[in-house]
Design a protein that fits this description.
single chain, 241 residues, Arc Repressor Mutant, subunit A, Tetracycline Repressor, domain 2, 2 domains, disordered N terminus
């Protein structure tokens, strides 16, 4: 038996509803002026429901990073011995790009919000550091039998994160209109050229640039340097904001 009335639209899952309510309020009132009570009231749920999904208000701004970090860790663990390590971590970084590109509007809103709220910027840097540690952990295992393997792993991981984030922010500044994949591929190409199979094992080796050669930027930082400072120095070298 047919019916002329359309079926009612399904309600979004509670987690998605909380994220949508939070960003609606952040845009209308501002992040600092919005409380968890405001968010749950708009979403029509209780405080306990909010904290079942998000440990804090900051976490609702970055709802998918835990899933993405788990996906990245699993991707690296599933790698084969014949996989070229630097290419593997570059491919792992592309999982983060895919997460952002799944919802460009939300990603751009979050980028703008994070720029305005120092606390969110600090939170974001802590998330970035966890991605870097996942990449470095994989590379340390692959470079364990090489001289300076630990140093090489940490430098490559930092370079991958810096290159990826530089391209990602360029895409976000375009309001999600530019080709994010092409920008990240170009940025990660620098890393693969510098540290992949074709690159010299000795990080201090200097090769003259031939006609048509690409610029390769290698940034060396103290191991205890804050990630934000490494990223800033990398961007300064590339002449990017």
């Amino acid at each position: 038996m047919s019916s002329s009335s359309a079926a009612p639209a399904a309600k979004p899952p509670m987690r998605d509803a909380l994220v949508a309510a939070a960003f609606q309020l952040f845009l209308e009132r501002g992040y600092e002026q919005t409380t968890v009570d405001d968010i749950v009231a708009l979403a029509g749920v209780g405080r306990r429901s909010f904290f079942r999904y998000f440990p804090s208000k900051e976490d609702v701004v970055f709802p998918d990073h835990e899933r993405c970090l788990a996906d990245m860790t699993a991707f690296l663990a599933a790698g084969a011995e014949e996989d070229e390590p630097v290419r593997r971590v570059c491919d792992a970084a592309r999982l983060v790009l895919r997460m952002y590109a799944e919802n460009p509007t939300f990603s751009v809103q979050r980028y703008r919000l994070t720029k305005k709220v120092p606390g969110l910027r600090a939170y974001e840097l802590s998330v970035v550091w966890r991605y870097e540690r996942a990449l470095a952990g994989y590379l340390r295992g692959r470079f364990a039998d090489r001289p300076g393997g630990t140093l090489r792993a940490d430098v490559v991981a930092a370079a991958v994160v810096a290159a990826h984030n530089n391209a990602l922010r360029s895409w976000l500044r375009s309001d999600g209109e530019d080709d994010a994949g092409a920008a990240v591929d170009h940025a990660l190409g620098y890393v693969q050229a510098a540290f992949g199979h074709e690159a010299p094992e000795d990080p201090g080796a200097v090769h003259p640039r031939g006609e048509g050669a690409e610029d390769v930027v290698v940034l060396v930082a103290r191991r205890d340097a804050p990630l934000w400072r490494v990223v800033r120095e990398f961007e300064t070298v590339l002449g990017r904001d």
